[in-house]
Amino acid sequence: MRKANLSYICQECGMVHARWAGRCSGCQAWSSLTEQKASPANKRRITGAATRSPGMEVVALADANPASIPRPAPTGIAEFDRVCGGGFTPGSATLIGGEPGIGKSTLLLQIALKAPAGAVYITGEESLDQVRTRATRLSGTDKLATDLSLAAETDISAICRYIQAHRPALVVIDSIQTVYSSDVEGTPGSVAQVRTCAFELISVCKSVGSPLVMIGHVTKEGTLAGPRVLEHLVDTVLYFEGDRSAGYRILRGIKNRFGALDEIGIFEMTGTGLAGVANPSHLFMAERSKSPSPGIATVALLEGSRAILADVQALVCPTSFATPRRSVVGWDSNRLAMVTAVLDTHCGMSLGACDIYLNVAGGLRIKETAADLAVAAVLTSAAVGAPLPTDTVIFGEASLTGEIRPVGQALLRLKEAERLGFAAAMTPTLDKVSVKATALRISPVTKLSDFVYDMQQRPDQRENADGRR
Prior knowledge:
The chain has 14 helices and 21 strands.
């Protein structure tokens, strides 16, 4: 009797192995290989269909009509449209992930309630009564005036038949890890099931022109669960992040074929769902007292096409331990080590024997290098005890030689600071056009050592030093 062909697939990365092993050679995950039978009949059927397939249709690129290209349709939620490029494009596939309880289902249900007639919300994790209860709470009325259709279904065949028959205006799948195909072995959520179901959903939605939105689970490391090919199949990948105990959420674009990358949408959790934040700078700027304090500064950031101001706080204190502590919240710890080394080497600061605590107010995570100068400023301010001006915004990139390098979109950052009432800015050397275009007092910083020297020679610093003596 001929032995059935077996293969082993990793449930973490989707890599196929010829024989079982305790550890996947692709992602190095332990005990992640599961057995999968290969079907020779299916292989012959696929091969035969390929040989009988008619020739593919080829069209000339010059014959394309720009007026016939589908345009994104706004969803009615401005912050969401900003991230995904203006709304949903017909036939597009969007994947949204985030931690449990962050608000993914709430956001997509709000979008589905605002969608045109014919939208369908398919849930595999909740009952229909649970979805209706949440929809009633989000709308703020007992009687829902909407044509949204609901379904509690996890069979991919039934879902695809409904999409082909009704051509919905929007398809929401909550979530892709709960959908299964009877033609594929494995439990729902496995690599093979997720890959097959996602491919069939995307194919049928593109054929009928219905936008598709899928919710994806995340792993304990915070990445999207399932095979990596899932992110390649979809057109847009969005990640919902934020502290569940806080009242705000950040929607960040990771991949987008229809818009700019690295755009973010700011939402605030309210009793009637998620509401967009029109002015996020106030959200990330801490409430300060009238008297300035050492170790705090305002940095001008750029998230996609939006300028945001945020407060950076630092605390520097001597330690009696052999290894000083470095605690960083909202910034890259490796970047902090680099800025600290530059201050010690080129500016004569002795921060190597001090504990350093760095925090970005509001829970925002800074990813760009424009915060280098602001971090160096708050570290110097906290170390020497001299407060920074509260009406000054700071941004600039620090090099390993101690020089301050320019950053992109400086004028956009200055305009946002001017709009929020700031009077001055510490920046790298700007061109004459940017200086004339703003009413802020520009204090150019070319070398970090000059800035540290000015901080140490300030009158308020000498008074603080005399008081300590």
